[in-house]
Every structure is written in C-alpha cells, then in structure tokens.
Specification:
This protein is an alpha+beta fold. 34% of the residues lie in helices and 15% in strands. The protein folds into two domains: 221 residues, UDP-n-acetylglucosamine1-carboxyvinyl-transferase, Chain; 190 residues, UDP-n-acetylglucosamine1-carboxyvinyl-transferase, Chain (Alpha-beta prism), CATH 3.65.10. It contains 15 helices and 18 strands. The strands form five sheets. A five-stranded mixed sheet has the order 2-3-4-6-5, with helices on one face. The protein has a four-stranded mixed sheet with strand order 1-11-13-12. The longest helix is centred in the N-terminal third of the chain and has 14 residues. 48% of the residues are buried.
Length: 430
C-alpha cells in the first residue's frame, strides 16, 4: 500500500493556535512546541508567514522610520488568513504602529467589513486595502483603551468566515462581552467558525451560544492549555483530499498516517464526498486512515451537498469526477471566486483544455458527461494562477493525461510544501 509521508499540519488550526498564543503571552513557547517534532520543510507557507509576522510584532527593535512615527512593516504575502487574523490581533494588542502589506492579488480579496467593525469597536486603523491604492498603507496604531465589546453591527458583511473567526478570537480581550447574533450553524464555511469556537473553548475562553448566535466574555486564554494543544496538532484534511482523489483515479489504496476520526476540521467531509467517487476511508484504531478503492455505480448526476461549508474541497472533487467520467452538479460554490484565484473560472478554463465543457453558473458548476478527446501528443498547460489548489487538483488529471505541464508547480508550497515529494505524486509530471 502506498503511503503519504509529508502531510502538513492543518494550517487552519495552527494559525488559530498561534494567534491565541500571542494573545496569552506564550507565542514563543507554543511555536517551539508546535514545530519541535516536525520537519520545517513540510510547514505550509501560510504558517511560516504567520510565525514570521508574529515574531516581528513581538520584536521591539525591527522598525522602519516614517515621517510621523516609527512603524513595523508586516508583509503577509498572499496569505488571506494571516491578513485577517493579524489585523484583528494587532488592533487589540499592538504597542507600536504596524503597517501591513501583501501581494496585489491579496489586496483584491475582501477586508473592509473587518476593518469597519474593528474601528467601530475602538481600533485605530488608518488607510485602505485595495489594488487601486496599492501604494497606500494600511496602518494599525496602538489602541488607547481596550476594544469595547458589544454587539456585531447589523450591517456587517459576512462574506468571509475569517472575518467572524478573527473577531471571535480577540473578543476574550475586549473590555465587555461581545455577541454575534444571527450566527447560523450552517452556511458559507461555517465549519471554520465552529473550529474557531472549539479551539477557543479548549484554550479556556468563556463563550456560549445564545438563541440566535454566540456571546464571548472577557477572560483570555490559558497558556498551559495552549501548550498542550500545540503538542498534538491536527494534520491537514484539505491537503489529504488529493490523496483521496489519487486513490479514486488510480484505483490504488493509500495510507495516510496521523489523521484521526476525532479531528475537528470541516474538510474531513472529504470522507463522505469521495465514497460515491469510488474511495472508502477506513480509520485505524491507532491513528491513520486507509483509502480503499471500491466499485460504485456511476450516478446520473453526482450532487454533493454542503459544499458552501467546505469550499477548498471543490477543486479536488471537480477534477476527480471528471477523471472518473462522473457527471456532476456542484452548488453553493460562489465563494470560490474570492480565493487565491477565481477558482470557478480557472476550473472551467482548464477543464476545456482537456476537452471537458463545464457549465458555470453564478453559484454552481456542472458537467453533463460530454467531452471531446484530446490528442495524446498535445501538451496541456495548466495555468496555476498563483493558486496552490489549482496545481494540486489538476495533478490528478496527469494520471490519465501525462502531457500535463504547469505554469508554476511550486505554488503548492502555500499549503503543502511536500506535495511533489510524496511517493504517489513525485512520479507525476511537474
């Protein structure tokens, strides 16, 4: 049985843990515990960036002179999670001005709702975050007093779960309780909010559900609890999804160590999504998962439910279904347009190179099963569009189309640096 050897830690969990550790004053110790038993080469770029940014925030000497004050420059690259989480963190605890920058693509991703809410709570944030103001700065100044708490603005734009998670994580350090009404326990990326709340509770935060939402009370986190959490981190289920796809397309079993049935990531839903595509997951008592190819009837239309809650799985499911010649309808996928690339557009355009004509709706993606064979000698150049998931998802196609090439195969490092070193992927063209 083939085995995955370089599965990264779950960046969603790690980045939340590091933010809470900084708030609790134990960031250096948690960082050391988190990585002491792991190969730094396999650490996702997003987590490396988070560590670097928090280290700069903690440093008292690394400043850049400006006309009005000295500030610390934080470059978050293309890491949207780092941008949102660190913005909220800095608004609560920074002791000197912080200026945030990142890639042009990142400045196209939403941030204003979070900035407006933090300002309403008492944060001192100046500047904008837009491509047309790429040379302007977004600067966060030390708060004159603790952020005030209260109730989330009724006009708050909830298009990104990261806005909610960012506010929740810093809320234990507000001066008064902070409530988020009308927080449905379903919907866009809700498992990520659920993960945030679960980790907050494990770290000692005081929060509870209300009739319609959630309220977080002042009190902070326990450093000891955070250290314990760092010693047994979850591994990344979104990264594991590519092994599921590989098993479905290659029809070979594969073993993924370290994954657990108790893992809290929403992307564990890949287990149920992949069974109709021909893969059964068997959890082992001592840890790890065996992926076993199974015979399943081809469905008239494969229609997985709840994709709006786990959008990162969609590229894997789309490419796997195409390679299995399984017609599909993916619904609730509009949020994919706001990722590292417009993933819906990229999936449609790339699928066409293979002869598959996808029907792109405002919030859906469909394939009726028709396709045009491509010449075996013709190179298929996949535009990775600076998007790690485009490279990893379309690698599954190279099992059947060895003429696949990529504009930049190295983008996988954002979430899965060891991807091309995995035995099952290393032999694929890249």
């Amino acid at each position: 049985m083939d085995q995955i050897k370089h599965l990264p830690i779950a960046k969603s969990n790690a980045n939340r843990l590091l933010i809470m550790a900084y708030l609790a004053g134990v960031f250096p110790r948690v960082r050391e515990a988190l990585f002491s038993q792991r190969d730094w080469e396999d650490c996702p770029d997003d987590v490396r960036i988070m560590c670097c940014v928090l280290q700069k925030m903690a440093s008292r000497t690394e400043t850049v002179p400006s006309p009005d004050a000295s500030f610390t420059l934080l470059d978050v690259g293309a890491a949207g999670t780092v941008l949102r989480f660190v913005t909220a963190l800095a608004a609560v605890v920074t002791e000197r001005p912080l200026q945030i920058t990142g890639t042009t693509r990142l400045k196209n991703r939403p941030l204003r709702p979070l900035l407006d809410e933090l300002k309403a709570l008492g944060a001192d944030i100046r500047g904008e975050w837009r491509e047309d103001k790429a040379h302007d700065s977004l600067t966060i100044y030390p708060p004159s007093r603790p952020l005030c708490g209260g109730t989330l603005s009724s006009t708050f734009d909830r298009k990104s779960s990261q806005f909610i998670s960012a506010l929740l994580m810093v809320a234990p350090y507000f001066s008064a309780p902070f409530s988020i009404p009308e927080l449905s326990r379903r919907g866009n990326s809700y498992p990520y909010i659920e993960l945030t709340l679960a980790m907050m509770r494990e770290a000692g935060a005081d929060w509870s559900y209300t009739e319609t939402g959630v309220v977080v009370r002042p009190g902070g986190y326990s450093g000891d609890r955070l250290l314990k959490m760092a010693q047994a981190p979850e591994m990344d289920w979104s990264a594991a999804s590519y092994a599921f796809g590989w098993s479905a397309v290659s029809r070979r079993p594969v073993f993924l160590p370290s994954l657990r049935a108790s893992d809290r990531q929403g992307d564990k839903a890949i287990v149920g999504f992949m069974r109709p595509l021909g893969v059964e997951a068997r959890f082992l008592e001592g840890g790890g998962v065996e992926l076993i190819p199974i015979d399943v009837p081809r469905l008239t239309c494969y229609t997985p439910e709840g994709l709006n809650e786990v959008p990162d799985l969609v590229p894997t499911l789309v490419v796997t279904a195409l390679m299995r010649r399984q017609p599909f309808l993916m619904q609730g996928v509009a949020s994919l347009r706001l990722k590292e690339s417009d993933r819906l557009r990229q999936l449609v355009e790339t699928a066409a190179l293979f002869g598959f004509h996808l029907d792109e709706g405002e919030d859906s993606l469909a394939w009726d099963g028709a396709f045009s064979p491509v010449e075996a000698q013709r190179t298929i150049l996949v535009d990775t569009a600076e998007d790690h998931r485009m490279a990893m998802a379309w690698s599954l196609a190279s099992l059947l189309y060895p003429q696949v090439q990529y504009t930049d195969a190295s983008v996988v490092s954002k979430s899965y640096p060891g991807f091309w070193r995995e035995p099952i992927f290393a032999a694929l063209p890249h």
